[in-house]
Amino acid sequence: VLERCTKILSKGKVRKITAEDKEKILTVNEAMAMQALRNLGFAYRELPESATNFDEKIENDMTFVGIMGMIDPPREEVKDAISLCRNAGIKVVMVTGDHKLTAVAVAKELNLIGENEAPSQVLTGQELDKINDEQLTQMVENIVIYARVSPEHKMRIVKAWKAKGYVVAMTGDGVNDAPALKMADIGVAMGITGTEVTKEASDMVLTDDNFASIVKAVKEGREIYDNIKKYLTYLLRCNIMEILVMFIVMISVPYLAGSAYQPGGDPKLSPTVALTAIQLLWVNLTTDGLPALALGIDPGDPDLMERKPRDPNESVFTRDVKLYLMLVPIMMTALLLTGYFMCQPWLDEYHLLEARTQLLTAMILMELANAISARSLRYTVFKVGIFKNKFLWVAILSSLGLQLMVLYTPFLQDLFDVHAPEPIDWAIAILFTAIVFGSLELGKYIASKRRKA
Hints:
The chain is α/β, with parallel strands linked by helices. It has helices at 19-33, 76-87, 100-109, 125-129, 133-139, 151-163, 178-183, 196-201, 211-257, 277-287, 290-295, 319-342, 349-373, 381-384, 390-408, 410-416, 423-452, and strands spanning 5-10, 13-16, 38-44, 62-70, 94-95, 122-124, 145-147, 169-172, 186-190, 204-206. It contains 17 helices and 10 strands.
């Protein structure tokens, strides 16, 4: 606007604009921009009444009137959201059409850059036009602010970040932003100010147009992924244990029983069958049902937003999951087999009933304790909050109540081939459960200390 002005309105009078006037106006503009103000310059030109042609050619020889500054203050929660992103290993970059100084002022207000950050972290659209894509890719990780950019520049920025191997999310609201949103791994459109074209091109729509909502979505996504790991680890280690118990009992009882073992006959009366079909189904119903579902809605670890982003190609069966699936089933199997063989189920039907009752009770208690421990694969349940997931406790108490009903209701005892456990059976079951739970929590405690070290 200033370049097209030859006159200035000063103190109510129009006079010729001087180089000193222009320098003063630019100084005021910069000072206002540094206060995070978006500035508009105003000028006019008087045209004769006979003028009929109104195009760009008449936009010269104008009279400069003044500057108006507008402010669009960032929401209070954005500053905290950017801090969360930084802790979570997410790099936030500002891409704006505003003046360079305005963008820098807003970025400093949000702690996106420090007060004395180097100007090399800021790039304008004009500077972008002077470098090629290869040069941009080399320097993209060091740029925090892009000012006075066009939608075409946004596409180049996304392309450069992706070339570096990053997962890129881009926000936008205008029609011209749609190509950049489509190119990004995650296109985020504004639900209130965004156009329909932008919303169609995006992967996610912010209904409140709030940057903090993106950070909440990241936290939610990490919780879901972690809960999938917890759910799978809990179910698989318990099911592997059940398979091992059934298999080892089947092949070892004939050797342990010696002449007391009589092959053939009803499988329900065979000591080589550790648990009957209905007992196995009952174990799965009480332990794989409600407790596993409750783990799917677990609140998550306290350091969830302090971890670095995971590799998108990383398998859900990470090193810690594999360790759980190898070591825990072996430990549980060894304890359960010890209790089963101590009852000598090959002697007669009473001993077989005693062994199965003890095994069924201990197995269910162990798996329910496993569900509590599975609330975190990295930290002890005491650190993540042992009672934080109320749904899990409702599920565990419900499952325990159902098991007690089977053990102490006469007609259900006959149906499930069990009897009321003796005090020694409860003592063994609780001891085995305490050993498994204590070992899991101790292992996680030691591992967490090593990570800190």
